[in-house]
Amino acid sequence: MRNLLPLIAFAAVASAPSALAHDDHVGATDAPYPAIEVLNAFRDGCGSIANQAAASASLTAAGWTEGGAFAPIQLVQFLTFAQDAGGEAVNAQGGTMSDMEVFEKTVAGERVFIVLSEIKVDGTRVSGCRLFDLGETRAIPAQTVTDWLGAEPIKSVDENVIKVHDWEPGLAPEHDSFQLFFVPNDSPFKAMVKFDGIAFKADTVGVED
Fold it and tell me: Checking CA distances to 6, which of 35, 128, 181, 182 falls within 20 to 30 Å?
């Protein structure tokens, strides 16, 4: 079951078009990235991920709005691919995958999206909450998140082409993990994953409802 999560996460990231959110990006690239404001907004919305329904209610209460109906066509294509690829992987294991939900919010001038998903396989539930600031060119330093969480990452990949940092348990003791991603828009890695910018991931693992 645990092996499915990276596969589904990769399918979601790999499907994101490289142009996604460039036209919708609000933030000024010559100013420091508002990392703490965006991290706080993510925690306010995704601090409770007992399941997808709880996360959806938490996001609404935190002022996030449903973004699926008016999402850019590139995001719609991303979600369609992620749903299809993730669903195929889960179905192969005899499990189920929920319909993804999209929320959006402008935080300190940054238009960011959150995607909720949930998979259930062999009595185990994995509920995920992912934030995307796609097309963003300013990385969030791992030390900023370390100070914010009050814990060191358990592993890091810190290369020019991609940066990925993992913390466990993450935002809360009941969470499984928190991840910070950054892919520069000139990275050759983007040719494979078709994603550039900032992303967060938080998830919980529990018994199927």
Answer: 35
